[in-house]
């Protein structure tokens, strides 16, 4: 029995399900092939046979499917809801303890979706790092650049790292994120280009990547209500920008 499973509710979601199944080594369920059977009962029968679920459906349908099944956040499978257009990956169950947050980021990197993380442990961390780097930079080099950029702020305050899609497989960046349990948010190059604002445009990045910069726009896209705490800082072929969330801007007047 595979560790991860994908549940579809319509045949139209099958190409997306198969794409994810190849990357996640997952089992794909197609209950619509047995129209005379109750799909929710089918789901309930196999729910606890897998440790991770990606539900390709609307969140409202997912809530109804899960009704009565969760038992404990320490033992329930991780559940991520992904709409069929792959716009949002939402950890719905066992986000922190069960790994649904990590799964949501993974699904987002595979599909271009936006991870919608709602658990307080992650959501209250105020900092987002935008990172760009030359090919082949080590995790140690990236870490030293990040620590310099944070200027005494702790890595425990960082919610996520954001980079451009061309760096999604950068070994040193992936190792740095894994070492510090930091989720990696991948921003499409078209979205970075559309952001339109980079404080210090780079001719090298424009020539080689096709955008004016990476770290600043990626951090600002990942944290849209944040403010640029540190503009692009470059060290040994690594660029880092730090954005801080504007929680204080959302107070309620008495």
Automatic annotation (TrEMBL):
InterPro entries: CbiG_hydrolase (IPR052553), CbiG_N (IPR021744), CobE/GbiG_C (IPR002750), CobE/GbiG_C_sf (IPR036518), GbiG_N_sf (IPR038029). Residues 127-242 form the CobE/GbiG C-terminal domain. Pfam families: CbiG_C, CbiG_N. Residues 43-122 form the Cobalamin synthesis G N-terminal domain. Transmembrane segments: none annotated. One of its GO terms (biological process) is cobalamin biosynthetic process. This is Cobalamin biosynthesis protein CbiG. It comes from Aquitalea palustris.
